[in-house]
Model the fold of this input.
Amino acid sequence: MPRLPNSSPHTRAVLHSLLGTYPAPTYGYDLSKATELKSGTLYPILQRLHEQGYLDAQWEDSTHAGKPPRHIYRLTEAGLKLARERKDATGPARSLKGALT
Amino acid sequence: MSPDEWPQGMENEADSVADHEWAHQTRLYRGQHRKVWIPMVGIVLGSAVFLRLDWSPSDAANQLGMAWLLVCALALGASTRSRLSWLVAGTALPASLVLWHLAIIWLGWSLPYHMEPAGIAGPLSLSLLMVPGLLMARLGSWLAHRFRPG
Done:
């Protein structure tokens, strides 16, 4: 039986984390810590979800002086639906500890 | 957000967090996050020079072409980051030569030198150049991974 797209454990963990904070946006660092995924695994997943229209990625000005703007990520409507489907289909993944820390 | 903005986003995220280990790891990955068109341009230019050198009956050009193939394969292999992309680096130039010779036969053109064996076997025999190409690309890939800083 063919595997569902975006159903790998890593992608599910990312979707679950984003779902846990929705509609609040999340930073890449928080997602990395929450899912325990390294940058080299997390960012390709985020990029793919973004290219597929499941993830909204925006720049956010830093609240700390001298710090550069950061990317914030939030599920789109389609991403929200996908995250719920993947959660229902395969059970819960790792949860997110907090958003925008 | 365009694909070009992702590396900058990673860099900024690394600059924004106090977790130095995570920031270091992210910068390493961001450094590997290269634009794919750079090696593609290398392959196109390398192939163009390789085919130009091939279009000559002189032995010097022939030897220069072989040296060019080895150098290009080494450099392209060293520029690759993903696990198996050295295979592309090693086969790109020989494959371009094989296709070019097949195209010449198909178009009914003639080479500036006598090709042995004649016919389709000639271009196909050129695919043997993939052996030194792959060896040099693998060497380049290994050297780059061995001595790459960070």
In short: Chain B touches chain A through 20 residues (CB under 8 Å). The mean pLDDT of chain B is 88. Residues 1-34 of chain B form one domain.
